## 1
Amino acid sequence: MTSPEKQLVTVSEAKKMEAKTMVPILSVKNVSLSFNTGGKSFPVIDNISFDVMENEFVSIIGPSGCGKSTLLRIIAGLIKPTSGTVLYRGNPITKPTPKITMVFQNFALLPWLTALENVELPLLKLIPNKDVRRERASKMLEIVGLSGFENAYPRELSGGMKQRVGIARALVSDPEILLMDEPFSSLDALTASYLRSEITNMFFNSSLSLKSVIMVSHNVEEVVELSDRVIVLSKRPAKIVAEVNITMQRPRSIRMPMFMSYVDKLYELLS
Amino acid sequence: MISVTTILAALGFSWARLSVALILSTVISFIVGIFAGVNRKAEHIIIPVIDILQSIPILGFFPVAVFFLVTYFPSYGLEMAAIFLIITSQVWNMIFAVYESVKAIPNEFIELMNIYDMSWLERFHKIYIPASVPRLVANLSVSWAVGLFFLSSSEIISLGTTNYQLFGIGSIIAQIIGSGQILDIYISFGLLIIALILTHELVFNTLYNWSMKYKYELVSAPKPTPWLVSTFVRATKPFKIFVKQVRLPRRPLSPVAKSLMSQETLVPIEIKKPSKTYVNEIRIIKIMIKSLIYLILIGLIIYLTFLMLPALIGAFQVLTNLSQLLYILYGTGISSIRILVSVIFMLPLIVLATYVSLNKLLKSIILPLFQILASIPAPLLFPLIVYWLGESRIEFASIIIIMLGSMWYVFYNSFSAVESIPNELREACTLSGLQRFLLFKKLYIPALMPGLITGLITAVGGAWNALIVAEWITLGNNTYEVHAGIGKIIDQAANAGNFNLMYAALLVMVIIVVVLDRTVWRKLYDYVTSRYKYEV
C-alpha cells in the first residue's frame, strides 16, 4: 500500500531522527498544583516533569479525575501551577500563546458563529486584514476536509465535522504544539475511528508548522494507535507512574501482534 | 412615633397574608401544572390562557376585584382581595414551573409507570410532584418578592369615596411616610429588610437545599429561570450559617430496596387482575368526574362573561368618545416612552452582570446586596424616593420606580446566562487570544442574549404593572403624580369612582400588552433562542 499516509510517516520518522539531538520543544518541570478550600489544601498534581521532543506525539493517560486535563491546561497557560514551570523552547509559559493551541472534548465551537468564523477566531488579533484572514481560515477548513461547509453553523454539522472545525481552529494560528483534551470521546465509535486514522495525516502535513502533539485520553487503544510515547499518571494527586515508548510502525492496527501487548501493559499500569 | 411592636405586628399580618397566598398558589400550581403537563387537551387550553393571563398587568384589576369582593363579602372581602391579588401575581409563573418540569420528565419514567401500572395517586406522589419540586421551590423566593410587591400596594386602596385599609407593613409604611417622621421611616425599612433576610435564609434556602435531592438532571444545562436562586445561595456566605445546621430528612427506604439489601430470598409477587365490575365502576366514575369538570368550567365561563359584560359595555362607551379615546391613547404613549427609557437605562446591567459573574469579589458584594434591594417592594420605596429627589423630579422618580420593579430580571437572567457558559467555550476564546472588547463581542454578548431577552420580557411585563404604582400616589394629604400616563389614568379613575374610564384604560392596556407580547417579544425570543443557544 503506497498511501500518502505512509510516505508522510516516513518523513516524520526521518525528522524524528534528527530531533533526537535537539533540545526539547516543551519541558514540564516539577509542576505541582493544589486547590485551597477552607484553609485546607488539596493536592491535584504532584511534582510532574517530562519533556516533549519535536515530531513527537505524546499521550497522557490516567484514572478519571486524576487531573490530566488540568495538566493540559497548565501547559496551555490557562491555569497557573502552584509550583514548577512549563518551558516552551526554553521560555516559561505564563499566559496562553497562539503557538500552543487546544482541541476540546466537546468541540467548544461558538454556536452563533459559522464554521469559517469559528476558525477565524484566533486570527482576529493576529491578522488585521479581513480578506487575508478569511482566506487562511477557509484554507484550513479545506485541510481538515470541510471545504463547502464554510457558512454552516455548528448545530448544522455532525459531531465528527464539529471536531474537524475544532481542529482547524486549533491549527489556523500556526501552532507548534497541539494539545488535545479527549478529542474523540464525544464522538461515536465509527466517526472517532475515521478521524483517528486521518489525524496523523492532517497534523504532519508538510504545509503546517506543527511540531508536537500532546493528547489526554482515557482510551488505551486510541493511545496505542496514535502515540510515540505514553505518560501514565496515578490517581489524585497525579504523579507519573510510567513512561512507555511505542515503537510500532505506522499505520497501526489492532491486528498487529504488538498492539495488544502494549494495550495490556498500559491497562496493567493503570490499575 | 410608631412603636417597633406595631411595625413587627404589621410585618406579621403581611407575612401571614403572603404565606396563605403562597401555599394556595403552590397547591393550585401543582394541580393545574400537572394536569396541563399530562393531559394533551388540557394543555392546549390551559397553557395559552395562562400565557395571556401572566402578561396582563394584574395590578390594574385590583380595584375591580376589591369592588366585587367587598360588595359580596363585606366583612373579610378586603383580606380576600389582597390574597387573591397576591395569588394572581405569582401563580402563573409557578404553574409554568410545574408544567415544564412535568414535560421534562424523561420518557423512561413514564414507561416505567406504565409497566408497573401505577395509579394516579401513585404517579402524583412518586413522579410528578417530586419532579416538579426543584423548579417550584427555586421559584418560591421570587414569588414571595412579587407577592410582596403587590401586597404592599394592596393594603391601601381608595375607591370613589371609600377608603379601604388593611393593617400590614404596606399600610404602616405609607402611614409613617405620610407623617414625615424620618427616623420611623428608616426603622420600618430596617425591620422590613431584616424580616426579608431571615425569611430568605431560614425558609427559602432551607427549602431550596432540601429540594436539591429531587434533582435528576443528567446534563447540567441551566435554563434561565427568572431568578437564579442557587447562585444567591452560593454567594451569600455570611448568611449560610443557619442552613448548614438544618439536617435534611432522610427518606425511608422503599420495601423493594429493603428486600434487595437484606439477604433474604425474595417472595414471588402475585399480580392480581382487577375484576370486571371494578373496571366498569372506575370507568363510570371517570366519566362522571369529567362531566362535572366540564360543567364547572362552562358555568365559570358564563359567570365571568356575565360579570365582565357591564364592564366591557362601559369600556366601549368610553372608547367611542373620541376625546376620551385620545386621552387614553396619549397616556399609553407617554407610559410606553417611560418604559422604553427605563429599558434603555437597564441595558448597562448586562455589562455589570458579566463583570459580576467573572469577578469573585464583585460577586460576593453585589449578589447579596442586589438580593436585598430586589426584595424590597418598589411601591414602598416610591414615597421615599419622591421624598429624596424632591417633588419636582417626580418624572425621574417614576422611572426609577419602574426600574426598581423590573430591572432585576434583566440582571439575574443575564448573569445566569454568563454563568452557564461552558468552560470549554471560555477556554477556546482565551486560547484564541480574545480580550476585552472582542471577548464581549464574540462570547459574552451573544451568550447572554437569550437571558437578556427572557429578562427583558419579564421586566417589561413588570414595568406595565409598576406603572400603576409609579405614576400616581397619595400620601396623607399630598398627591404625587406624573404629567400623564395610563397608570395615572387608571389610578385616578379608580379613586374618583369613574369605573367606566378605568375599564376602558385597562382594556387598552391589556390589548397593547398582549399584542406586543405576541408579536414583537415572541418573535425576538424565537430568533434569539434559535441563534444564540448552545446545545450541550
Note: Chain B touches chain A at residues 422, 424-425, 427-435, 438, 442-443, 446, 531-536 (CB under 8 Å).
## 2
Amino acid sequence: MAEETFLSDEFIRKLTAVGEVDILVAVPTFNNRGTIEQVVNAIQLGLVKYFPRERVVLINPDGGSNDGTPEAVKNASIPDFRSLLSSSPLRTIHRISTIYGGVDGISNSWRIIMAAADLLRAKACAVVSPDLESITPEWIEALVRPVYKEQFDLVTPIYHRHKYDGLLIKNIIAPTIRSVYGVKVREPVGGEFGFSGRLACHYMEQDVWHEEFVRARTEIWLTTRAIADGFRLCQSFLGPKIHAPESSAQNIVATIQDTLGALFRCMENQQSYWVSRSEPPQPVPVFGFEYSSGLEPRRINRKKMLTMFQNGVSQLAPILESILSEETLREIQGVSQQDEKHFRFPDELWVKTIYEFAASYHHSVMNREHLLQALTPIYRGRIYSVVLESQRADAEQIERRIEALGQEYEKLRPQLVEEWARKA
Amino acid sequence: MAQLVLNTLSRTLGNFFNAVALFLPRILSMLVIIAAGLLVALILKVIVRRIFGIASFRKYCDSAGLTQMMRKAALPDPVEFLGQVVFWVILIVFIVLGVDVLGISALREQISRFFLFLPQIFVAMVVLFIGLLIANFFSRATLLATTNANYPSARLLSSLVRVLIIVFFVTMALEQIGLGRRVVLIAFSIAFGAMMMGTAIAFGLGGRDVARRFLERQFVQKEETAEKDEEISPL
C-alpha cells in the first residue's frame, strides 16, 4: 500500500485498533498550545451534539511541536457534557496523534488525513485549523452534515470577514477559479474543509503529493482537483473566522508566491479540463444562515502601500516588460502616476494583468518565483484602490463589487485562453 | 649576353610556372575542402535546428531562464545559437584542414598552436556564459527582493550585484586563456577593494542616521502605539 511509506507503524496500529468509523475530524497542528484545547473541545461538543450515534475519530497530525500541543490534544476534556448539552456522549471519541515532517511539510499532514480516512473507511471527514479563536461546535455540523446527509463530496467554508480581510482571495483566487473552472467558490483556500471518504480515496490515488504546488498550498489543489474530476461541491457558512494573533501575520510576498504559484500550476496540471470549457460558471449550493455583524476595524498604512506600488512599477519596469504586454504595462504605469485621492486601479486592467501573469507563468518567460514576486507591487496598488473605493461601503455593496469583478474575469476569459495557447 | 639573360629569365619563369603548377592543385584542394566544409556545416546546422527545435527543448530553455538570458545578452535563442555554433565549428575545422593542405610549414605551426588554444577559448566562453546567467539571475533576485522590501536604490544594488559577478567571471575566463594572469588578479583585487572601501565610506558618512535608527529599532523597546504596516490578512 502506498501509505506505508509515510505512515508510521504505530499510527497504523492505532488506526487498526479503532476499526471503521463514520466520521473523521482532523486538526493538523504545530505549536498551537494556546488555542488547541478550545478547538478540540469545540470539536468534541460538535460531535456529541450533532452526531451522537456515529462512530467518530479525531486525528491530530503534528509537525513536531515543542510546546506540548499533542499532549494538550490528548488531555483536552469536557468534564460534564450535561452543563453544555442536553445529552451525554453515547460513544467514545477516539483520538490519535502522529508526527508529520520531512521535506513535504504541511502537505504530509493532509496526506496522513486522507490516508487515515481511506483506511478507516470514513463516510465523512472534516479538517479545521488549530489556531482558531472563533470555532464553535456548529462548525463541525456545517462541515460534516452536507457530506454525511446530502451526499456532497467537498464542503468549502464561507466566513464572515472584515471587508479588508482575504483580499488576495477576493481579487485573484476566487474570481480566477470562477472564470477558469466555472465554479463560484468563495473561499477556495479556507483552512476548514469537509469531504467524503470517496473523495479522500480519489486524492490518495493522485501521484502529485511531492509536487511543489501541492506542498505550498494543498487546499487549492484539493478544491480544483475536485472540480476538475466532477465531484459534488457545496459551501457552508461558518461565521466569523478569527485566528490567534501570532499566526495571522503573513508575509505578502511569500503568500502571493505560494498561493498564485499553486493556482497557476493547478491550471497547467488541469488544462485539459478548462481550456475548452465554454459553459457559464455555476453557483455552488450554500448551507447555513448567512449573517453579518460588526467586526473590529483594521489599521492600514495606505500611504506606504501606494508608495510601494509606485516605486515597484518604476523599479521593476525591465522585468515587467517581459511579463506584460506593452499596452497593459503602459496602463499600469499610467495608474501609478495618479494622485492618492483620485487613485483608481480599474477592474479590467487588473484582470488583464492577472491573465497576462498567468500566461507568462505558463510559458515560463523567466524564473517562475521571480515572476510571481514581480506581481507584489502591482497587487499593493490594486489593494490600495480597493481600500479607497470601499471605505464607506457596506457588506451589500462589497458583495456587488466582488460580483462585478467576477463578471470581468469571465468576460476576459477568451483572452486568457488565447494567451495560454499561444506558442512561446 | 642577351642569350644569357633570356635563358635565366626563361628558367626563372619555368621554375615559377612549375611551382604554380605544383601549388595550384593544393589551392584547388583547399577550396574543395572548404566548399565541402561549408556544405557539411550547413547540413549539420539544419539537422541541429530540427533536433533541438522541438517544443520541449524550447520550453526547457524558457523555464531555465536561458532564452531570456540570451535575449538580454543580445544573443539569438538557444536553438539558433546551437545551430550557429555547430556551423562555425565545422567550418573552421574544414578551413584549417584546407589550409593545412597547402603545406606551408610556418602556417602549419600556427594552426597546430591554434588547435591547442581552442579548448581553452571554448572553456573561457563557457565560463563567461555561465557567469552571465548567474549575474542575471542574482541581479534580478536582488532587484525584486529590495523593491518588495521597500529598500531605496534597488536598481543600484541590483546593478552592483550584476557587475561584481560579471567581473568575477571575466577574471576567471581571462585566467583560463592565460591572459596576463597576474595583471588580471591584481586589477580585480584593486577594483574589488576600492569598491568595498568606497561602499564602506559611503555608508559610514551618508548612513550615520540610518545606522542610528536601525540600532535604536533593534535595541530600544518599540512604542506601543507604533502603527502596523499591514494588518489586513491576504488570505
Note: Strands of chain A lie at 23-26, 56-62, 93-99, 124-127, 154-160, 183-184, 193-196, 233-240, 282-283, 286-287.
